[in-house]
Specification:
globular; 272 residues; alpha+beta; 25% strand; single chain; 8 strands; Nuclear Transport Factor 2, Chain: A
Length: 272
């Protein structure tokens, strides 16, 4: 059934996200082997990232998997529905430091509630964050210096309550990312984790799925991003076509990236 745009008041830049199949380019054996090797390198990087997340090894992820060249690090970004953290230092502030503070607060509240001495070994107890990724599409730039990828994840996060029980949250996300080569290896440059649905475990799925921002656990967890904006509106799910699925391209620019400069509302740094 067609979406009634007039009643939903969707922004003018919304588009249907129609998947397309692209044939492999005609390449020499040597270039084809290099392209396939690059694709597997990108897939391995993102798989390793999932395991680092699950083990709360977020600083290790930033150190090993993300860009480190100062020029690139200054333009790195992490986006979700609610905005972007822009610059690697800003990503660290939220993704590493604030997350570590959250884990400390959970441990302290649990120990205080149960009359226990604070114990660092309890950090992360009854908590889990897992975003397994599937259905990958990886495109290597024609110039070979960058890559784009799209994945889908049905993930979950679980957080410990004061009494030792846990609260779980299901997350359905499209994940798109840019990668650039540093010292001959692909590194994560931009990522957008676009949440289509998030439900507390035990929620009746027939209930309305709109969650006010002040009650949205993921919005609260995302804190105060560097650029606060509506990156992906899950009221429309895939109909807003952001982030778009990775397609063949020649070379990576900020304007065609998954960074904020490439968002339709901020194309080239200006709203549309």
């Amino acid at each position: 059934m067609a979406i009634d745009w007039s009643s939903k008041l969707a922004p003018a830049w919304f588009e249907h996200n129609v998947p397309k199949r692209y044939p492999l380019p005609r390449l020499s054996d040597e270039d084809l082997i290099q392209m396939v090797t690059d694709i597997e390198e990108v897939r391995d990087l993102m798989s390793l990232r999932s395991y680092y997340q699950a083990a709360d090894l977020r600083q290790k992820e930033l150190d090993e998997l993300w860009v480190s060249n100062p020029v690139n690090a200054a333009k790195a970004s992490y986006g979700t529905n609610y905005g972007y953290y822009y610059g690697k230092s800003e990503i660290k502030r939220w993704y590493v430091d604030e997350h570590a503070e959250k884990r400390q607060a959970q441990m302290k509240a649990f120990c205080a509630k149960n009359g226990l001495a604070e114990d660092e070994s309890l950090l992360g107890s009854a908590s889990m964050y897992m975003m397994p990724m599937s259905t990958s599409i990886v495109r290597i730039a024609k110039d070979g210096n960058s890559a784009k990828g799209t994945w889908y994840s049905i993930g979950q996060q679980t957080n410990m309550n004061e009494d030792g029980t846990a609260t779980g949250l299901w997350m359905y996300c499209k994940i798109c990312a840019d990668f650039i080569k540093e010292d001959g290896k692909f590194k994560l440059f931009h990522i957008v984790v676009a949440n289509d649905q998030n439900y507390a475990a035990g929620t009746n799925y027939s209930a309305p799925n709109h969650i006010p921002a002040e009650e949205d656990a993921l919005a609260i967890e995302f804190g105060e991003p560097t650029i606060k904006m509506n990156v992906h509106d899950n009221a429309y799910n895939w109909a807003d076509n952001y982030p778009p699925m990775a397609e063949p391209y020649d070379t990576l620019t900020l304007e065609n990236s998954y960074g904020p400069e490439g968002h339709p509302m901020l194309k080239g740094g200006f709203p549309v």
